[in-house]
Design brief:
Elements lengths: L1 E6 L7 H15 L3 E6 L25 H11 L4 H12 L2 E7 L7 H10 L29 E7 L16 H14 L4 E2 L3 E3 L7 H16 L55 H7 L1
Parallel strand pairs: 1-2, 1-3, 3-4, 4-5, 4-6
Helix pairs in contact: 1-6
The structure holds flavin-adenine dinucleotide.
Flavin-adenine dinucleotide binds next to helix 1.
């Protein structure tokens, strides 16, 4: 497989840097071809602004969506963005690696998504009608490829459990897994999360490294998170609401968008549907 790892940590000697090296070594040992986009080392520009659209006339009002659409259609995106798009098209597997900062990804990585996910490439794709609402959520330019997150957290695993004060990790990562990766078509694997890493000792590092090696060895066989396909019949169009007969009665929240969320007993206990899916 061809693997693109997008790395978002400012310090190569960090724990994240060490885990990246572990992942790359394990992938290469499996015969996978690996490329890395090291955002800090490469001086990635994280904010979208006019400079991203040099062909926009100076007196034209800057509208990011329209500018992105036009630049993508006319091949006028900036070279750094085009390079990343080419890498995404090249890769069979995308890995986003980052420390959890304020319950999300570091700003530089969010900026990578905002700039690289151009209109016509990652969104605004496909037919919009009374039968389809674009090619997204399981369909789209990147369909047929896999993706996953490698995340480290200061907080404990319990803090991110279904009753933990930080909120369940599956919920916190849902906007990334579902909103950023599944949206343009990726099959999204359960994330690799290393919890409580501040002050990690050598034995703790080795345990995390071994878990990560195992995930890298099983990239091709790990079942993806079973998100519902937008155009698969589960959602009403155009409201895009889940059909009333699906999901457990009264259930709300992100887990509704998993196939199997209406199966009842298996998903209603301590473990979240994603944890149940990941354990399969
Ligand atoms: P580092 O600081 O580089 O290392 C962590 C520990 O691992 C160190 O003690 C280091 O000695 C040790 N270590 C063991 N082996 C190795 C090795 N081989 N190489 C390198 N180091 C090793 N946490 C949350 O849970 N939720 C949040 O919302 C959150 N928000 C944050 C916001 C900001 C702005 C910041 C700075 C931190 C936040 N944190 C949060 C904590 C953050 O997630 C952790 O600090 C981060 O995940 C640690 O990863 P690192 O690569 O920076 O680790």
């Amino acid at each position: 497989m061809k693997v693109l790892l997008v790395f978002a940590h400012p310090e190569p000697r960090s724990l994240n840097g060490a885990l990246r090296d572990v992942a790359m070594k394990a992938l290469e040992a499996q015969g996978h071809e690996v490329r890395v986009s090291d955002l800090y080392a490469g001086g990635w520009k994280s904010e979208i602004d006019r400079a991203d659209f040099p062909s926009l006339e100076t007196d034209t009002r800057f509208m990011p969506v329209a500018a992105s659409k036009r630049a993508f259609e006319t091949g006028a995106l900036t070279e750094d963005v085009k390079t990343e798009i080419d890498k995404l098209l090249w890769a069979d597997m995308l890995i986003l690696q980052f420390p959890l900062w304020w319950f999300s990804m570091p700003a530089i990585l969010k900026g990578w998504v905002e700039r690289v996910y151009a209109y016509g490439f990652a969104y605004g794709v496909g037919e919009h009608s009374d039968k389809r609402w674009g090619d997204r959520y399981g369909e789209g330019t990147l369909a047929g490829k896999r993706a996953m997150l490698i995340v480290t957290t200061g907080g404990w695993e319990e803090h991110y459990s279904t009753r933990g004060v930080n909120g369940p990790i599956d919920d916190l990562l849902f906007p990334i897994n579902h909103g950023i990766l599944y949206y343009p078509g990726y099959a999204v694997l359960p994330p690799f999360v290393a919890y409580r890493v501040d002050g990690l000792d050598e034995a703790g590092f080795e345990r995390a490294a071994e878990r990560l090696r195992e995930r890298m060895r099983t990239l091709e066989s790990t079942p993806p998170i079973p998100y519902r396909q937008q155009n698969g019949g589960d959602y009403l169009i155009p409201s895009m609401e889940l059909r009333p007969e699906l999901g457990e009665p009264g259930a709300t929240g992100f887990a509704l968008h998993l196939n199997g969320a209406d199966e009842g007993s298996e998903t209603s206990g301590q473990r979240s549907p994603l944890q149940v899916a990941a354990a399969r």
